[in-house]
């Protein structure tokens, strides 16, 4: 978190860490999704590969897409830190828009490239790897592991499984429980076993 302060991709990475979002969901966020009065943010699109059928080369590009299902759309609560993060990013993007005038894209994206267009997930991926290296953390850590870290931290903080399941947009609480809660229980059981073995 400290290394990220003032970094070009601070907003993108911190939003993933603080909200448990997937990379595509972070990159698909718009300012219109944020309700500062209600302290919420709507997750309703993602950046993903899109095929351009109008071109003969059959190449794909990154664009905005709906989430995989209607149930994937969700509204999350925001904290003052998250809101400040978004406001700082808005100030930066507004400055870019002023500088570039009509060449700046008006997609309303929070996390965009220097000209307001969709930010390539690959660009974010490589930046994330460089940050891991700078922090002395394993460089084989995936961006998606930020989502897993969020989930495990929530469980450690005793967030109810039902609440966490909705936040992560899992199909059921059983999915959340099987993926995260079992490993946490195993750690607790291990701690208890070691403690009991050492007590005379």
Describe this structure in words.
48% of the residues lie in helices and 12% in strands. It has a three-stranded antiparallel beta sheet, with no helix packed on it. A two-stranded antiparallel ribbon has the order 3-4. By secondary structure, it is α+β, with helices and mostly antiparallel strands. The termini are far apart.
Rg, rounded, reads 19 Å
Got a strand count?
Answer: 5
- What is the helix content? 40-55%
Largest sheet: 3 strands, antiparallel
Helix count, DSSP H or I runs of 4 or more residues: 7
Give the amount of beta strand, in percent.
Answer: 5-15%
**By helix and strand content, what is the structural category?**
alpha+beta
Flag low-confidence runs.
none
Distance from N terminus to C terminus (CA atoms, Å) equals 42 Å
* Lateral arrangement of strands in the main beta sheet: 1-2-5
Order of helices and strands: HHEEEEEHHHHH
Q: Keyphrases for this structure?
A:
5 strands; 7 helices; 12% strand; single chain; alpha+beta
Quick overview:
The protein has 200 residues and is α+β, with helices and mostly antiparallel strands. The protein has seven helices and five strands.
Q: What is the secondary structure topology, with strand pairs?
A:
Elements: H1 10-19, H2 23-27, E1 34-35, E2 40-43, E3 45-51, E4 60-66, E5 74-77, H3 80-100, H4 121-135, H5 145-156, H6 161-168, H7 173-198
